[in-house]
Amino acid sequence: MRDPECGHFVDGAQHGAISEPCRIPTRSEAIRGMPGFNKLLFFLKLAYLHSMKTTFLVPDKLPAIKEAKINGKSYGFQTGETILSFVRRYFGQDYIPTLCDSPQLEAFGSCRVCSVEVSRGAGQAFRTVGSCHTPVEAGMEILTESESVQKLRRNIIELVLTDHPLDCLTCEVNGNCELQDVAAKVGIRKVRYPEGKNHLDRQKDLSHPYMTSDLSKCIMCYRCVRACDEIQGQQVLNVMGRGFDSQIIKGMNQSFAESDCVSCGACAQACPTSAISDVFQSKALVGQTKVRTVCTYCGVGCNLEVSVKDGKVLSIQAPYTAEVNQGHTCLKGRYAFKFYKHPDRIRKPMIRNADGGFDEVSWDEAYDYITSKLKDIRTKHGPDSIAGISSARCTNEENYLMQKFIRAVIGTNNIDGCARVCHSPTALGMQRSFGTGAATNSIEDLKFTHAIMVIGANPTEGHPVTGAKLRQFAMKGKTCIVIDPRKTELAKYATHHLQLRPGTNVAVLNMMLHAIVSAKAYDRQFIELRTEGWEDFKENILSLNIAELEEVSGVSYSAARDAAIAYAKAENAMSFHGLGVTEHYQGTYTVMLIADLAMITGNIGKRGCGVNPLRGQNNVQGMADMGVQPYQGAGYLDHTQEEIRKQYSEFYGAEVPAAAGYKIPDMYDAAIRGDLKAMYVVGEDMAQSDPNTLHVINALKSLDLLVVQELFMTETSKLAHVVLPGASFLEKEGTFTNGERRIQKVNKVVEPVGEAKSDGQIIIDLMNRMGYKQADYEADSMLREISKIVPFFAGVSWENLGDRGKQWPVAADGTDTQILHQKEFKRGKGQFVFREYVETPEVLEYAAEFPFILTTNRVLEHYNAGTMTRRTGNAEIITEDLLLIHPKDAASYHIAERDFVDIESARGKISVRAHLTDEVKQGVLSTTFHFPELFVNIVTSSIHDSIAKCPEYKVVCVKICKKQ
Ligand code: SF4
Alpha-carbon distance 151 to 16, whole Å? Predict the structure, then answer.
């Protein structure tokens, strides 16, 4: 029908869909009538929308070359730019009202509120078009405020309001509602249409621990559906029905709790009203302050905007301007924050009493106890009888202080951190191949790559925001190689999945290298100019026994060759790897072979390439950068060299010893031997996380002094002599460095609970009491100190980090580095390293008696030992650890879904519920380790990576039986 005032066509009673020829077909048109919806067509559409995005969403980087008129005046525009983006650049973000448009979503053109009048040149008639999806043309005249478009906008909003509850005053988003803003902007005073059939009686969905919906407030802008598709790639939200009966549904018209929703919150953040929101009402205006900080969970390093009122965190949103996550998070970053004030938080220092319990004490008492014990032990047994373990949960500044405390105040290099049990082989392997043990490129480079190889990583669970980007890449049908014993989510979309036997990465990578060398598909020029060791390497690769490698890995040479050639032939190829590479007997060598693969194909030193470890914890990169390792000081300088040792000693004003200290496994052995008497542990639960639990507990119990700085009474805290209450990431300031070397500001959001203090201040208090002068903890001054000793922090200061952060190395003038090794490698030439596959001693020794291989994995909802996530709503979503077992294996042992299974290794026995799935091959089992009840490390072994000493969590020989 025609609108009586403006004469435009309007469709139905609700949405002002206007007939005009040049608009993009709406998604609703494409997906209405879902039963016949074809997956292939959907992916093609995604690819199409992606191509639109590349033209529409990056215009700022293109030069202005042509002109068009806006309301009678000429302005330069950029090729491919939309009218909306063109007008916004000159007149501001809110100049043209919009409803279905949203940052990070493709142009959609459904609400038509952004309509403008356009003439394509002198004498040409004006026509009404949607500005969000119509490209600007040279000579175009654009009228943004003509009477006609103003009437049209008013009419559209009036029609929307006929089917929207007018309960603004009690609505969660009152004052922060885009519909409210647009209605005010277009000048709605009253709705002229009579009340008719509507959807105001739709029921709320409050089924989920986090997500909520009230679809009576839905304006059918599809932003939620598009966010679910285009940002997260989950495709849970959809549209059912046609015309007036159209409605947003979850899954198969289920509730949030029943659906496959992963609670990333992208839909809630995208929704312009409160139709989809969350239990924290994160779009409400009640927060007095918004503080920007960085997520405490994984190494992606998502930026968060925390809403605070009366010293309490209300909710968290994701800033669209964040370089790392562009308005996206996973459920951990956005929703799993309530742990910070959980009743279980340690609120006062405690000292173990004679009955084996703990007494709460003052800070002075705790400090006196610790210093007198440390001094006593150092005098009687020497400084090397003391060791420290620092934390990837802590800031760079705190990690720097902790290693300084151990080196300069205690006088030993016995300092290590959790990188030892995750990515130490990455740091070592990449250092030996390239000279630098960190990611060579940025996640942003996915925009410039043509192939990805993901090996030993399950990023959609472990690194969800990066995982979502990788999934989007794979869903578009681009070359995606997954090397993993499990059929991970990404593997389901991959063009190549090499489902190898756990522990045989080296065998598969060698087959891939063999295929590239045999086919001469290598980059000869890069090899000659940039590398060394090629001839020996080539000879060794060509002499491999391929049949043997096929046999041990379970992967055919032809599959490995197809994947290798796809990687080699891609114009740019990126590799990503995780703990499925490092937590193996041959972890460091596997990293070197990944580096070989990048060098042999010239995929280093440019955009869209590189070797990109997916770092586990939020600041595991920064922890190592700051010198938390026993053989290199802050900035990876080798203190065993006299000159470097002198440099550190002068800088700290205290003698730093030369000899390398104990790595974490050595600490346990030394404690059991009686050589190590005291350990100072910050934020690390080794008794639950480290392998061979009984051995670890035995070691910790052998100590004369165990000090633990923690948030909660973990399994390690329970063994301590002194427990000190540390502060969570929301309660302190400093910097974290994410997996792409980006140093980002962590701002204090609330005061620490109880008497807790920042870990940095606790360490400083102890330094002073041990006789070493160190000023009170302040991120600003600590960064100044660090920038003077860590070469790649030279130009880092608190002020110049800004909101974007900086990727190290940062030159003295503040210039940072997105891509490493562009002209030459840090070590000069890249080093080819050949390594033959060797079976792990675990299999050689135990496979006959323990025929299954148990490997470990994570789920999205929990983080590592679950210390934090189990104290949030995430514990309502995933309530226990599960054992993944192939249905045929389960049948052989009469195991049914959810039955308890006994798992026994040479070290011990545990029980866990079964989940039958073909995600694992026969003979392979996989379990998570988030709940302390499981104690999976009772069965893991003490076998380590042969060089870096990272434990082999990923290959454990076990036998199983149904629990009676
Ligand atoms: Fe936090 Fe990682 Fe999730 Fe981002 S992806 S919100 S950094 S846990």
Answer: 12
Residue nearest atom 2 of ligand 1, based on CA coordinates: 298
pLDDT tens-place string over residues 386-410: 999 999 999 999 999 999 999 999 9
Number of Cβ within a 10 Å radius of residue 33: 12
Residue partners of 488: CB distance under 8 A and separation at least 6: 458, 460, 461, 482, 919
SS (H, E, C) 353-391: CCCCCEEECCHHHHHHHHHHHHHHHHHHHCHHHEEEEEC
Does any ligand 1 atom lie closer than 6 A to the CB of residue 868?
no
- The token pair that represents 310 in the structure block: 């009366």
Q: How many contiguous H segments (helices) and E segments (strands) does the chain have? A: 32, 36
211 and 276 in contact (C-beta within 8 Å)?
yes
Would you list the DSSP string of 848-899? Answer: TTS-EEEEE---TT--TT-TTGGGSTHHHH--S-EEEE-HHHHHHTT--TT-
Q: How far is the CA of 600 from the centre of ligand 1 (A)?
A: 33
What is the distance in A from the centroid of ligand 1 to the CA of 952?
A: 25
**Interatomic CA distance for residues 901 and 760, integer angstroms:** 44
C-alpha of residue 334 to centroid of ligand 1, in Å: 8
Q: Which of 292, 294, 463, 466 should be mutated for ligand 1, with most atoms under 8 A from CB?
A: 463
- Residues 679/700, Cβ–Cβ less than 8 Å: yes
Q: What is the pLDDT of residue 25?
A: 34
Extract the runs of DSSP E, i.e. beta strands, from 751-795: none
Using CA positions, which residue lies closest to atom 6 of ligand 1? 333
Which parts of the chain sit beneath pLDDT 70?
A: 1-65, 287
Say which amino acid occupies 271.
C
CB 130 within 8 A of CB 115: yes
Regarding the beta carbon of 265 and ligand 1, being less than 6 Å apart is answered no
Q: Which residue's CA is the closest to the ligand 1 atom numbered 3?
A: 330
**If we measure between CA atoms, which residue out of 702, 709, 751, 699 comes closest to residue 730?**
751
| Predicted pLDDT of residue 776 | 96
Closest residue by Cα to atom 4, ligand 1, is 302
Residue 596 token pair: 């070989």
pTM of the model: 0.90
